[in-house]
Automatic annotation (TrEMBL):
The active site is at E88. Keywords: ATP-binding, Cytoplasm, DNA synthesis, Kinase, Metal-binding, Nucleotide-binding, Transferase, Zinc. InterPro entries: P-loop_NTPase, Thymidine_kinase, Thymidine_kinase_CS. Homotetramer. One of its GO terms (cellular component) is cytosol. This is Thymidine kinase. It is found in: Cytoplasm. One of its GO terms (molecular function) is ATP binding. It catalyses: thymidine + ATP = dTMP + ADP + H(+). One of its GO terms (biological process) is DNA biosynthetic process. Belongs to the thymidine kinase family. Its EC number is 2.7.1.21.
Amino acid sequence: MAKLYFHYSTMNAGKSTVLLQASHNYRERGMQTYLLTARFDDRAGKGKIASRIGISEDADTFGPDTDLFAQLQTRLVQGPVTCVFIDEAQFLTEDQVWQLARAVDDLRVPVMCYGLRVDFQGKLFPGSAALLALSDEMREVRTICHCGKKATMVVRQDETGAVLREGAQVQIGGNETYVSLCRRHWREAMGDLPSDTMA
């Protein structure tokens, strides 16, 4: 039975690696997959899903105006698809998450979404909020803070390494811009811990 999955984490947890490995596993067994990524995140090149460990794959793209139900319907006319994989799922709109849910229910194709849960201010992305509400299954892709605890938050830094507390929710960047932290160290970085607890 087809399901809508949400694989979420912080930055640099290996979401794209997991996505590309899962797609490879299907294709290795002769099954077709369909890959999508956010149009404006072109760090690895236009229409490319890339991992920090050096693997990549071509993908179609989506923007905020893309009707994903129609796009999946069109792709399925061209031939069978065993599974749909979506990278940078935090950039989906709420409407697009509903479109994916309808594709799972009506077109009977599994959809696996991979994305960030929260932004650098600890707020849910709209796409992530909708996926948390509508997904049939959710799985956390874990990474660790510098202290060894599980990282659940992320800070944004400027070019000098100073932590930014304000700014647009979306700013494309990698290791040079974002650092994953546990909640306590995120609070410390954001100035939200009393000085007597910062030991």
